[in-house]
Amino acid sequence: MFPIRDHNPSGRTPFVTYALIAVNVAVYLATWNLEANPRALMSFYADYALIPALVSEGAGLAGFLTSMFLHGGIMHLLGNMLFLFIFGDNIEDEMGHAGFALFYLACGLAAGLGQYVADPASTIPMVGASGAIAGVMGGYLLLYPRARVDILIILVIIFRVIPLPAWILLALWFAMQIFGGFSSTGGQGGVAYWAHAGGFIAGIVLTIPVWLKRGGPAYWQVTHGHPPHPDARYPLTRTHIPRVPRQSPGQARGRGGPWGRGRR
């Protein structure tokens, strides 16, 4: 189950969101060949990932910033960029280009700090933009709790898209991070749960001034938690494939194709 789009159009072109996506993709493409060489990859992570144990020794502080532009695989990258694409444009619309850029970086730094505080002796490199994007999601929850988000549900061979209020999706996601953080043993599992939680909380806190500027609780009363503009609609379009009328058995036998009964 994951989001594919929201019904919350932005009023300006999200240049910073697009730039962040481009930078993350470019960095991944420039370093993807390291995945075939574990020794070179770990050497690269030692310089640019966030490794809490190094920070505890007074080194590797740059990793708080550089780690948020690295990814551990193509699916890791695509998942993060999808979330940024869905939720980033609206927060950028509210905060402005420069404000959003600073907000994104601040959430990423807070996410790294959250993971560090949770396990300062960990030697596991932390990479990914998900902590910063979690902050974007936290800000989205505060400003548009009832915005509609389309969720793709995959059950074996069943594919279905259903709309959900943003607060259900985001609150469930946050609860999963908290549960994962407490249930993971020694930081194992491959997911930086506390970075996600820290970024999410930072996003809410840093968005409070924008929310208060809009009226705070009064803003919610006016919008009822929805975006303050009409929802984007995604109407189903009719297919251009012509419909073939059903035929009787007698008609079908008289019109065989290359492999039908009409030609022998």
From TrEMBL:
Signal peptide: none annotated. Keywords: Cell inner membrane, Cell membrane, Hydrolase, Membrane, Protease, Transmembrane, Transmembrane helix. It is a multi-pass membrane protein. The chain crosses the membrane at residues 15-32, 44-62, 68-87, 99-118, 124-144, 151-179, 191-212. Residues 234-264 are annotated as: Disordered. It is found in: Membrane. Its main location: membrane. The keyword Cell inner membrane applies. GO terms for biological process: proteolysis. One of its GO terms (molecular function) is serine-type endopeptidase activity. This is Membrane associated serine protease, rhomboid family.
